[in-house]
Design a protein that fits this description.
Structural class: alpha+beta
Order of helices and strands: HEEEEHEH
Shape: globular
Strand order of the largest sheet: 3-4-2-1-5
Oligomer: single chain
Largest sheet: 5 strands, mixed
Number of helices: 3
């Protein structure tokens, strides 16, 4: 496992701990994922998200033990279904084709 994979895993675990309505996180993996400047990209599916009809990514710089930049977009379960059906576009360069799916662990509910 690369350092970037480990940092992504910590970020995903943390998001599950702090967001109780978060159901699934997709880590969007780019063909150039090994590049240091390529951010960790997360598509988060949350029951608490207000539907907007768009997938809006928000960028964050490295901070604390998250030593890579990150880009996070949060959508509702219904919007995720629209993404799967092709009715809602992901941000440019994002694809579920190589995405890593992370389902909410039961241990996050106890945190």
């Amino acid at each position: 496992m690369s350092d970037k994979d480990e940092v992504a895993r910590r970020l995903i675990d943390w998001h599950f701990r702090i967001e109780p309505e978060l159901q699934v996180i997709y880590r969007i993996v780019s063909p150039n994922e090994d590049a240091t400047e390529e951010p960790i990209k997360l598509l988060e599916v949350s029951g608490a998200t207000v539907e907007t009809g768009r997938v809006e990514p928000f960028a964050f710089g490295p901070a604390g033990d998250i030593s890579y930049p990150s880009v996070i977009a949060e959508i509702s379960p219904a919007e995720m279904e629209r993404v799967r059906q092709g009715g809602l576009a992901l941000p440019a360069g994002w694809s579920l084709e190589r995405a890593q799916e992370h389902v909410r662990p039961k241990s996050a509910d106890a945190a």
